[in-house]
Amino acid sequence: MDIQALAETVPVEGVVNLEGIDFVKNGDEYLTFCLGSEHYGVEILSVKEIRGWERPTLIPNSPDYVKGVINIRGIIIPIIDLRMRFAVGDPTYSNTTVVIVLSLENDSMNCMMGFVVDAVSDVLNVEDGDVKKAPNFGGTLPVDMVEGLVNVGDNVVTIISTEQLLTLEDD
């Protein structure tokens, strides 16, 4: 083989051939997780990190669902147990228990919080038309906290509004 012909097949620095790669999609991605036997999802762009369960520093006189705070690289992050907050399942801590750290930065707020969940499931790719409006039937979640519902196989995933979750207050 001619060395000159071979050199012409090597990509030039900064030039990448993306032909045939299908990465453009219409829709959103959500990190799904379990609370008891229920499945939930949050917008993946809000997920800062996923950490294993570690006992946080307790905060006196805080609600029972506020487990305390942890220090992540100099930032104090409040930890909320969503199972307790939403009254879904028993608050047990096992090797699958994780803390999902969410961050929201926009014109009106800039905050980070950690949420204890039973386990992280998957990243869910959802087309725009697949998210259905949640019925207002008085569940444990306030209706303004639910962005919608998505059918995934035999399960229904409740998509939670990250902004509402990060402004979580007592009812």
- Total helices: the number is 3
Q: Write down the overall mean pLDDT.
A: 80
Estimate percent helicity.
under 10%
State the CATH architecture. Answer: Beta Barrel
Give the strand order, joined by hyphens, for the main sheet.
8-1-2-10-9
- Global outline: globular
User: Please, what is the CATH homologous superfamily?
Assistant: CheA-289, Domain 4
DSSP summary, beta strand count: 10
N to C succession of SSEs: HEEEEEHEEEEEH
Strand content: 35-45%
> What is the CATH topology classification name?
OB fold (Dihydrolipoamide Acetyltransferase, E2P)
Kindly provide the name of the CATH class: Mainly Beta
Given as residue ranges, the uncertain stretches (5+ residues, pLDDT < 50) are 14-24
Task: Specify Rg, calculated over alpha carbons.
Answer: 21 Å
Domains, number? 1
Class per helix and strand makeup: mainly beta
Largest sheet: 5 strands, mixed
* Distance from first to last alpha carbon: 75 Å
